[in-house]
Design goal:
CATH architecture of the largest domain: Orthogonal Bundle
Structural class: alpha/beta
Distance between the termini: 12 Å
Number of strands: 10
Shape: globular
Radius of gyration: 19 Å
Strand order of the largest sheet: 3-2-1-4-5
Largest sheet: 5 strands, mixed
Order of helices and strands: EEEHEHEHEEEHHHHHHHEHHEH
Number of helices: 13
CATH class of the largest domain: Mainly Alpha
């Protein structure tokens, strides 16, 4: 059996794949930039318990934060400790997104989930990508970015009164608690991205919709338009934000003459199909 992981900052989706069967389950995200080694080891212990003795011959891990030799090496070491005598393959979540979208074909893969990333996939690897600066400096168009823009406008009293009232009623938190969660507690990116649910619920409001539209346009200008001849390339998106706001994303791309081939909420199912054929 092959164990495949698609890991973001918020959650990791796992697929246990055999020739005739696929079992999918979920754990918390495993971004090595945000979690300590003991925290990562604890999650892998939980994964082993979920497997209930199933024999795994290969582990393929695609992870957010696995974009440097140091972080990839750390994840590979931890996986080798957890899955003895297994072939271990570690790569970025961007490579996983590209394989889910294009298989062995070429295209530009874009992740819009808790974070944001993109790269040109040549059928084997990412051969060109724009700079990804994380949720504080970058991640335009991501859930964390949407949450940051929304909360900023909320705290500056720039949103309609009905939106402020609905927010207070739903979350029952005020400015001090919000700032504490962002500046003093861990996983601020996940916290900010969690407000994407509220944004989706109120997308009919023109001011809320503008936040999403502006975020996608900034992502397109800062990243996608930097790919040579992108108007003639296959472009695909993965992630909860791309899927949840697909109608706005499509309209933004039409304006910039970018043709979207596919939008996938969860790459893990496509990855399972891909590895079944290998």
């Amino acid at each position: 059996m092959i164990l495949i992981a698609d890991s973001g900052s918020t959650k990791t989706e796992w697929a246990l794949v055999s020739k005739n069967h696929t079992e999918i389950f979920e754990t918390t995200g495993m971004n090595p930039y945000f979690l300590t080694q003991p925290e990562l080891e604890k999650i892998l212990e939980h994964v082993n318990k979920k497997l209930k003795g199933d024999t795994v011959s290969k582990v393929v891990f695609f992870g957010a934060g696995c974009n440097s030799s140091e972080k990839m090496g750390l994840m590979k070491m931890l996986l080798k400790k957890s899955f003895l005598n297994c072939e271990i393959e570690v790569n970025s979540d961007l490579v996983g997104a590209a394989k889910a979208l294009f298989g062995k074909n070429k295209g530009i893969a874009v992740i819009l989930g808790t974070g944001a990333n993109s790269g040109y996939f040549n059928g084997k690897e990412i051969s060109f990508k724009t700079e990804s600066l994380g949720y504080i400096l970058g991640d335009e168009g991501s859930g964390a970015y949407l949450g940051k823009q929304f909360i900023t406008k909320l705290l500056y009293n720039e949103l309609p009164k009905e939106i402020e009232n609905d927010f207070t009623k739903e979350y029952k938190i005020r400015k001090p608690e919000i700032l504490e969660n962002i500046y003093q507690k861990p996983n601020a990116n996940r916290y900010l991205a969690s407000f994407a649910v509220f944004i989706k619920k109120h997308i009919g409001n023109s001011e809320v919709k503008k936040i999403v539209k502006d975020a996608f346009n900034v992502h397109i200008v800062n990243h996608l338009l930097k790919y040579p001849n992108i108007q003639n390339e296959n472009v695909g998106f993965v992630g909860s934000v791309a899927n949840s706001f697909s109608h706005i994303l499509k309209n933004c791309c039409i304006i910039h003459r970018i043709k979207i081939q596919l939008i996938i909420a969860k790459p893990i199912e496509k990855l399972a199909e891909f590895y079944k054929t290998q």
